[in-house]
């Protein structure tokens, strides 16, 4: 025990001084640390704070629109929200999760599994592209760590009418089919970047600093005329339904520019609701599906014959007795047409006459002339999955192969490729590339035949639509139509099906000053199957409306109407 007045033991004084020194050093250390943070190195804590409350958030770029030639929208992007969560901030036991799950159409267990299985991540999508009304309800729940992100959803105003042309994008707005895929790089914008502040609940505070802005994608204006597209789609759908056909396709080209003005397929699909779609529903049959064109190539055979100098408009071909044996194989006409000229050959669609012309020609030159119509090559449209068709090698042709080539068997083409071939007839022998993009000037093209030969053949094709021809139902009031029917047995493994046909009509209008070329193909119609009865009426229905919509003057007015017009 220590009494008052006693001296402190030297050891005790040393300990007291040690404590004092340690206390002073501690205070000095704290002061130094404070000075270091506030003055010498203030960025450290600021960086730590920013790391917890600042995020660089991508700014979604607006995808460009797809428009028809008159500016009508075919594909647009509308702003929507996507729901996401930060698994590190959301409690799997939060009592509000069932309500969130109900709003999003998910199970509570699904959300809890996302939280528990992604603890190392800070961003997990719950539901992409919800409606504005639904996003407002999600926001009202106010679960910490659950937030909304602005995105864009693709919408297609024309729906199934133009779906095979336009295509669609996936959930990340990347083109998957059609022209959405072809021009994806043009339509896709460049995302921006924004620095955003998060509050204590993990939600982003409005405002933020824009690091670099988003750049919207460019618009793409197509050559498609939405008015003609509707006409074509409706007429084709009606024909496929009435004839209980398996499928159908139709395409219209501008004969001067090679622009695709309309292209429709059946069956079709709704790009705004793709639930339950089969891969076959997505095929643009006008571009991807090949068929033997049948008698629609007889004008090409006649062209080759005239070009060779061995035939002309006065040449008579004997088709009696209505059939012709080649290598033991009978080639038959519908009936015995006897002695006919080239115009009658096309009008009556004589297989015997066409095969005799083909056999009289040099096989290499016949092949070259068919190729000059663009058969067996890409059209230049750059559509995804485009099929080029097949042109058999003339070096391997047998006599029968040459004969059947003359009336459209042994080769294959697509509807778009065949329509392009008919623009060569319509445009005086010039082969041009096909395009889905609107153009204001005529492409140069490549001359393949003389204009005189083309004019002669087109005039022969007019007789096909006149009384006595095979396509009287393709007639359009007050207009001359030049066309050709085709009815081909469907090729199957090992040969041809007995009762399965492909009905085709290819036509040009107006014949005196061609503006449009159209091909219609109906696959496996039931009952009637001739091209003149199944496909030709589609041409007539569409072109009757097209002539009015495009304000193309008539070239076949009755005399009384012409007199009134001149007065």
Automatic annotation (TrEMBL):
<feature type="domain" description="Penicillin-binding protein transpeptidase">
    <location>
        <begin position="248"/>
        <end position="543"/>
    </location>
</feature>
<keyword id="KW-0132">Cell division</keyword>
<dbReference type="GO" id="GO:0006508">
    <property type="term" value="P:proteolysis"/>
</dbReference>
<feature type="active site" description="Acyl-ester intermediate">
    <location>
        <position position="295"/>
    </location>
</feature>
<keyword id="KW-0717">Septation</keyword>
<dbReference type="InterPro" id="IPR036138">
    <property type="entry name" value="PBP_dimer_sf"/>
</dbReference>
<dbReference type="GO" id="GO:0008955">
    <property type="term" value="F:peptidoglycan glycosyltransferase activity"/>
</dbReference>
<dbReference type="GO" id="GO:0000917">
    <property type="term" value="P:division septum assembly"/>
</dbReference>
<comment type="function">
    <text>Catalyzes cross-linking of the peptidoglycan cell wall at the division septum.</text>
</comment>
<keyword id="KW-0121">Carboxypeptidase</keyword>
<dbReference type="GO" id="GO:0005886">
    <property type="term" value="C:plasma membrane"/>
</dbReference>
<dbReference type="GO" id="GO:0009252">
    <property type="term" value="P:peptidoglycan biosynthetic process"/>
</dbReference>
<dbReference type="InterPro" id="IPR050515">
    <property type="entry name" value="Beta-lactam/transpept"/>
</dbReference>
<dbReference type="GO" id="GO:0008658">
    <property type="term" value="F:penicillin binding"/>
</dbReference>
<keyword id="KW-0131">Cell cycle</keyword>
<keyword id="KW-1133">Transmembrane helix</keyword>
<protein>
    <recommendedName>
        <fullName>Peptidoglycan D,D-transpeptidase FtsI</fullName>
        <ecNumber>3.4.16.4</ecNumber>
    </recommendedName>
</protein>
<dbReference type="InterPro" id="IPR005311">
    <property type="entry name" value="PBP_dimer"/>
</dbReference>
<dbReference type="InterPro" id="IPR001460">
    <property type="entry name" value="PCN-bd_Tpept"/>
</dbReference>
<keyword id="KW-0645">Protease</keyword>
<dbReference type="InterPro" id="IPR037532">
    <property type="entry name" value="FtsI_transpept"/>
</dbReference>
<keyword id="KW-0472">Membrane</keyword>
<keyword id="KW-0961">Cell wall biogenesis/degradation</keyword>
<dbReference type="Pfam" id="PF03717">
    <property type="entry name" value="PBP_dimer"/>
</dbReference>
<keyword id="KW-0812">Transmembrane</keyword>
<dbReference type="GO" id="GO:0008360">
    <property type="term" value="P:regulation of cell shape"/>
</dbReference>
<keyword id="KW-0133">Cell shape</keyword>
<dbReference type="GO" id="GO:0009002">
    <property type="term" value="F:serine-type D-Ala-D-Ala carboxypeptidase activity"/>
</dbReference>
<comment type="pathway">
    <text>Cell wall biogenesis; peptidoglycan biosynthesis.</text>
</comment>
<keyword id="KW-0997">Cell inner membrane</keyword>
<dbReference type="Pfam" id="PF00905">
    <property type="entry name" value="Transpeptidase"/>
</dbReference>
<comment type="similarity">
    <text>Belongs to the transpeptidase family. FtsI subfamily.</text>
</comment>
<feature type="transmembrane region" description="Helical">
    <location>
        <begin position="12"/>
        <end position="35"/>
    </location>
</feature>
<feature type="domain" description="Penicillin-binding protein dimerisation">
    <location>
        <begin position="59"/>
        <end position="206"/>
    </location>
</feature>
<dbReference type="InterPro" id="IPR012338">
    <property type="entry name" value="Beta-lactam/transpept-like"/>
</dbReference>
<keyword id="KW-1003">Cell membrane</keyword>
<keyword id="KW-0573">Peptidoglycan synthesis</keyword>
<dbReference type="GO" id="GO:0043093">
    <property type="term" value="P:FtsZ-dependent cytokinesis"/>
</dbReference>
<dbReference type="GO" id="GO:0071555">
    <property type="term" value="P:cell wall organization"/>
</dbReference>
<keyword id="KW-0378">Hydrolase</keyword>
């Amino acid at each position: 025990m220590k009494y008052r007045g006693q001296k402190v033991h030297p050891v005790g004084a040393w300990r007291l001084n040690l404590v004092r020194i340690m206390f002073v050093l501690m205070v000095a250390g704290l002061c130094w640390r404070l000075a270091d943070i506030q003055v010498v190195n203030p960025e450290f804590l600021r960086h730590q704070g920013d790391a917890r409350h600042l995020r660089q958030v991508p700014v979604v770029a607006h995808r460009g629109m797809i428009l028809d030639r008159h500016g009508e929208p075919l594909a647009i992007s509308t702003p929507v929200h996507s729901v996401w969560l930060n698994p590190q901030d959301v409690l799997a036991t939060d009592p509000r999760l069932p309500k969130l799950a109900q709003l999003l159409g998910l199970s509570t267990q699904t959300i809890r599994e996302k939280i528990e299985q992604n603890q190392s991540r800070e961003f997990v999508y719950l539901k992409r592209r919800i409606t504005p009304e639904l996003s407002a309800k999600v926001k009202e729940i106010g679960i910490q760590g659950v937030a909304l992100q602005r995105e864009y959803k693709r919408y297609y105003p024309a729906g199934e009418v133009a779906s095979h042309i336009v295509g669609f994008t996936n959930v990340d707005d990347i083109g998957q089919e059609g022209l959405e895929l072809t021009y994806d790089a043009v339509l896709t914008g460049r995302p921006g970047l924004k620095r955003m502040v998060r509050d204590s609940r993990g939600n982003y505070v409005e405002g933020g600093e824009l690091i670099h802005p988003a750049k919207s994608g460019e618009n793409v204006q197509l050559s498609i005329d939405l008015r003609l597209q509707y006409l074509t789609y409706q007429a084709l759908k009606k024909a496929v339904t009435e004839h209980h056909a398996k499928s159908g396709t139709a395409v219209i080209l501008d004969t001067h520019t090679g622009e695709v003005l309309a292209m429709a397929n059946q069956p079709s699909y709704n790009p705004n609701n793709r639930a339950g779609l089969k891969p076959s529903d997505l095929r643009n049959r006008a571009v991807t599906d090949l068929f033997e064109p049948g008698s629609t190539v007889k004008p090409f055979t006649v062209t080759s014959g005239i070009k060779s100098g061995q035939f002309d408009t006065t040449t008579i071909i004997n088709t009696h007795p209505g059939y012709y044996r080649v290598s033991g194989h009978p080639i038959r006409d519908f009936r015995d047409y006897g002695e006919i000229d080239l115009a009658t050959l096309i009008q009556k669609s004589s297989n015997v006459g066409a095969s005799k012309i083909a056999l009289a020609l040099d096989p290499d030159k016949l092949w070259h002339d068919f190729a000059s119509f663009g058969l067996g090559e890409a059209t230049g449209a750059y559509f995804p999955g485009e099929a080029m068709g097949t042109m058999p090698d003339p070096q391997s042709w047998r006599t029968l192969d040459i004969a059947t080539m003359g009336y459209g068997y042994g080769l294959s083409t697509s509807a778009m490729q065949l329509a392009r071939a008919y623009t060569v007839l319509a445009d005086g022998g010039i082969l041009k590339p096909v395009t889905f993009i609107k153009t204001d000037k005529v492409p140069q093209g490549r001359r393949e035949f003389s204009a005189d030969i083309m004019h002669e053949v087109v005039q022969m094709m007019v007789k096909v639509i006149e009384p006595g021809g095979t396509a009287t139902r393709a007639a359009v009031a007050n207009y001359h139509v030049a066309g050709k029917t085709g009815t081909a047995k469907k090729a199957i493994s090992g040969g041809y099906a007995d009762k399965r046909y492909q009905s085709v009509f290819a036509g040009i209008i107006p014949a005196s000053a061609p503006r449009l070329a159209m091909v219609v193909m109906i696959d496996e119609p039931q009952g009637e199957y001739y091209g003149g009865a199944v496909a030709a009426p589609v041409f007539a229905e569409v072109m009757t409306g097209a002539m009015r919509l495009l304000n193309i003057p008539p070239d076949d007015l009755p005399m009384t109407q012409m007199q009134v017009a001149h007065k």
